[in-house]
Structures are given as structure tokens and as C-alpha cells.
Amino acid sequence: MAFLIQNTQNRDGAAIQAKLDELVRTSAAHNRYIGIERLTEEELEDLHLRCAQRAEAEEEQKAKRAADKAHEDADQKATRAADRVAGALD
């Protein structure tokens, strides 16, 4: 019975992996992720760390862009306010 359950789980896992590989292949994701289930534990850990570092760097870039945009908007508002004051004084 245990062999039957394990065999079914292995087939299900292989089917899910094939579906995921196809999604990766047809999307904007990198094809290098296809077949990573065959990597060693050390290689998987290294890949996980690199992905986490990239995600963190992207979040930092997103925050920096948001801060730059807010600063730019504030500068534009200040300029418009100064122009209105200068126009009122004329």
C-alpha cells in the first residue's frame, strides 16, 4: 500500500513539475529554472539566496523610485506655489 501511495505521489509530482516547467518556458521567467528539481541541496540553497537577494534589491529600487517621484512631485508643487506668489506680487 505504501508503495502504491508513493508511486502516485511521484507521478503527481512529476506532472506538476512538467506543468510548472511549461509555465516557466512560455512566460517571462528565466528558462534556467526548468529542471532545478535535480539540483543538489547546496545548489538549491544558493539559488534560493540569489533569488532572495534579487527580490530585496528590486524592493529597494522600487522604494527609491517612489521616494524620487515623491521628491519630484514636491519640487513641482513648490515651484507652482512660488510662481503663484510671484504672480500675485506683480
Note down, in words, how this protein is organized.
With 90 residues, the chain is an all-alpha fold. Among the domains are: 1-34; 39-66. It is 82% helix and 0% strand. The chain contains two helices and no strands. The chain has helices at 2-26, 41-89. The longest helix has 49 residues, at 41-89. The chain is rod-shaped.
Summarize the structure.
With 90 residues, the chain is an all-alpha fold.
Largest sheet: none
Based on DSSP secondary structure assignment, what is the total number of beta strands?
A: 0
- Show unreliable segments: none
Q: What string gives the helices and strands in order?
A: HH
Query: How many helix segments?
Result: 2
**In percent terms, what proportion of residues is strand?**
under 5%
Q: Radius of gyration from the CA trace?
A: 26 Å
Distance between the termini: 92 Å
Shape, per Cα inertia axes: rod-shaped
Estimated helix fraction: over 70%
> Which structural class matches the secondary elements?
mainly alpha
Q: What is the residue-mean pLDDT, rounded to a whole number?
A: 86
